[in-house]
User: Which sequence fits this backbone?
């Protein structure tokens, strides 16, 4: 989003039309970087079934004012026993994202790229059973640190574009991830 708004916030605390291009660009970059890192072929993402929601599309239980994103998991096709699979929903928390971008002087597309890459790493790890979605709360901080490290590894080669250098610097050395707002079947 060059020459456009980077972090203005609508009065309702959600992304406005001027932010959607940044969301789309960030998701495109995050998907491609994760596909390269995890060596997915063209059909690899189909097995990871996920969707993206922003504040206006989220259910009340998917909102978490203390997080930038929340990951929810749903059972897809529960009525077909052999066709059961999980659908993950990346629940972007528009207001907190816009506030962090504004407060820390970060480019919105760079911050969104980091957040979306982080959530995609979680999905890959859950799908590969490298981490259980229903892990006990005491194990989650360690997993968050692993995912932050992987996110840095994945995005480090792209540091110059989209303001990623500032975002990576901001989240380098993150020590205690916030688990506030993690309810039920969601990760923050």
Assistant:
């Amino acid at each position: 989003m060059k020459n456009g708004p980077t972090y203005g916030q609508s009065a309702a605390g959600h992304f406005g039309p001027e932010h959607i291009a940044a969301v789309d660009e960030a998701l495109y970059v995050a998907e491609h970087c994760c596909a390269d890192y995890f060596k997915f072929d063209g059909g690899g993402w189909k097995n990871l079934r996920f969707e993206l929601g922003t504040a206006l599309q989220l259910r009340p239980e998917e909102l978490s004012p203390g997080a930038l994103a929340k990951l929810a998991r749903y059972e897809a096709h529960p009525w077909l026993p052999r066709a059961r699979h999980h659908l993950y929903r990346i629940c972007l928390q528009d207001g907190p994202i816009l506030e962090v971008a504004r407060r820390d002087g970060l480019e919105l597309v760079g911050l969104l790229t980091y957040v979306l890459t982080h959530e995609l790493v979680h999905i890959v790890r859950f799908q590969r059973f490298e981490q259980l979605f229903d892990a006990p709360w005491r194990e989650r901080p360690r997993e968050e640190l692993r995912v932050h490290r992987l996110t840095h590894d994945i995005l480090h080669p792209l540091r110059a574009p989209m303001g990623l250098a500032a975002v990576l610097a901001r989240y380098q050395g993150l020590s205690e991830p916030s688990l506030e707002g993690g309810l039920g079947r969601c990760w923050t």
Remarks:
- Residues 17-38 form the longest helix (22 residues).
- Strands lie at 50-53, 69-76, 85-92, 186-187.
- The helical segments are 17-38, 94-104, 108-127, 140-155, 164-171.
